[in-house]
Amino acid sequence: MLFKFIRYTQPGWLFNLVPKIPGRFASCIITGKEVDDNFLDKTYETKAAQMADAGFRSWYKGVLLEATTQEIEKSSAEAPTLKDEYIFIRKYWGRAWTLFALLLRMSTGKNPFRELRSYRQTKNVPRVNLFEAPKTYTDYEQFQSSLIERKPRVSIIIPTLNRYPYLQAALRDLEKQDYTNFEVVVIDQSAPFQEDFYQQFSLDIQLIRQEEKALWTARNKAIKATNAAYLLFFDDDSRVGPDWISAHLKCLDYFQADISAGVSLAVVGQKVPASYGYFRWADQFDSGNALVTRNVFQQIGLFDEQYNGMRMGDGEFSYRAYLQGIKSISNYQASRVHLKVGEGGLREMGSWDGFRPTKWLAPKPVPSVIYLTKKYLPTPLYRNTILIGMLLSNVSYKQKGNSTMLAWSIFLALLKSPILLIQFLRARKIAHQMLANDRGPELLPG
């Protein structure tokens, strides 16, 4: 991504990074082809900014761009101007985020006169909806998947912890699947353990009892316990439709991808994000709804078990897969309803998300967030990921999408800054120990 100002809005976005691998990989850069002149935004001062903007828009509209490292380096030879940067952030994130970027830059020693001049010059730039008119794959519905016709074995992997009522509903959904050649590997960490619970289902269930409450150990154990070529990860507090498995398989086959990253709807009736309405490169991995080919784990390794009891194990796998050229499609047709119940699972580990620990004065963010971002992101992106996360984390999980409450969160962060600093330093100390203990992923034998 050529625009540096994305560090103020999406510093942790996968596509800010460039895989250092041979061949072509998923990208948000337009290279090696002519672009329709009408698609370029001539508001920008430089051709570099016009092309970068076109690539950014294309990515968000579901165009599956690819590039090599050399092509990206070549396209980066000319940098956007400061005015271009302000146009970019104002165009896609609006006035509030543009002001945030301005204040942040001025507070870190940037020339205030240049910054204010560029800021004012772009005040009339209208905000643009990135999700309008996405690319459609018109032949997808008629596509006859040879993969589905071959009926390969699929292993559905479900770690569970003290959620038997919700797991029951999830397993009932699996009984209704229109694709039938699958097994269910359940790693049960519940206490008390109810072995008889599983006898009520007409499913091929491989039950593994795990005493340790460790999510990523459980998923790795399940991967090792099956020989299936396709591994479908599922959460115990989720609901899916009868075509869920086949929708994942069809996506892999049509796009010749390695991962079908299903979308997750947090609550029944909640507004569906616009990006959940079409296919695009996936910029995240949801281990509660994703189909992964077995050879991915043979190529890049299993999940990192240092994330046990913490957050962002999904995020780490996303970075690692992307940087190794693994192609992952955001598959809107393979959706689940994620109930996010307030009991069992990671709720027992003391955190709602990476920046919202449930205990007062607990390390903040969760140390694994620092471990992840320090490991993969350049320093400016790491710093802004942590800063923005801390500023926006001082309201409840349910209110995190409310813009008024997020403004209040920033005010609270400034008010609580001494406490937040203590929390951050505690988290950083643990994260540095995690980095020291990092031995790399365990590869799944071929």
How many DSSP-defined strands? 11
Fraction in beta strands:
5-15%
Q: Mean pLDDT across all residues, rounded? A: 91
Helix content: 25-40%
Unreliable runs: none
Major β-sheet profile: 9 strands, mixed
Short description:
The protein is 39% helix and 12% strand. The protein has 446 residues and is of the alpha/beta class.
Q: How would you describe the overall organization of this protein?
A:
Strands 3, 4, 5, 6, 7, 8, 9, 10 and 11 form a nine-stranded mixed sheet that branches. The chain has a two-stranded antiparallel sheet with strand order 1-2. 37% of the residues are buried. Helix 3 (82-107) packs across helix 4, helix 11 (367-376) packs antiparallel against helix 12 and helix 11 (367-376) packs across helix 14. The protein has 14 helices and eleven strands. Helix content is 39%, strand content 12%. The mean pLDDT is 91. The chain is of the alpha/beta class. The two termini are 35 Å apart.
